[in-house]
Amino acid sequence: MTLTVTRPTTTVPESPRPFGFVRHSLALARRSLIKTLRTPEQLLDVTLQPVIFVVVYVFLLGGAISGSTHDYLQLLLPAIMVQTVLFGGMATGVNLNTDIGKGVFDRFRSLPIARSAPLVGSVLGDLIRYVVAIVSLLGFGYAIGFRIQTDPLSALAACLLTILFAFSTSWVFVFVGMLMRQPGGVQGVAFLVLFPLTFGTSMVAPKESMPGWLQAWVNVNPVSHVMDAARGLMLGGPVAGPVGWTLLWSAAFIAVFAPLAVRAYRIRL
Questions:
Q1: What pTM was computed for the model?
Q2: Are 206 and 181 in contact (CB under 8 A)?
Q3: Vertex 230, ends 224 and 235: CA angle to 5°?
Q4: Distance from CA of residue 251 to its chain's centroid?
């Protein structure tokens, strides 16, 4: 008599089909978008915070720096728009770190999807934060006197360029989110990165009024190029140089930090 031994079979997840990476990333971006819409209080930092910055700078410092709050508002608002979306990108790293701590990404590991799809989906889903930030800021600015001095297409280009740069820098925060053990650590490191980048610019004061060493930093600061590009597209002035530098910096941030973030994600999980 012959005994037949049946060995248990293990199910191996199928490899993603061609273009599956894009489909899976968009599906996870939809998840991130739904999560944001169901908890709208997450948008307070990109709706109320920029309004507070504008009020503080324009009405407390505008008269002293520019001599006219109206003229200062025209100069300040495009720069505040850049600052707002950069701070909004910090939430991407914090949310990813929180989801990992809750075990959400353990489920993603068992799915037949690309390892980087959850990260890409989260970054794409958080683009809504940038749109909400820009719309709310421009709406408030228009209500208190800001006016675009070029044309609607140029203003739209300024908004899209700002969103592109924020998308690229959000990979820095994703990388930090994969390294830190707690969401509070992500916020702490993010603020250390953002403050010299956003305030070490000509956002609130002309760089000619700064000491030489600070002017040198402003000249090479990538955020300065984005702010100059946004001002040129919205108010008029040099555009080609700042836009070119912004595109180069955006490509560099994605090329460097997106692979690092994916590698850190694989190591952590």
A1: 0.85
A2: no
A3: 120
A4: 14
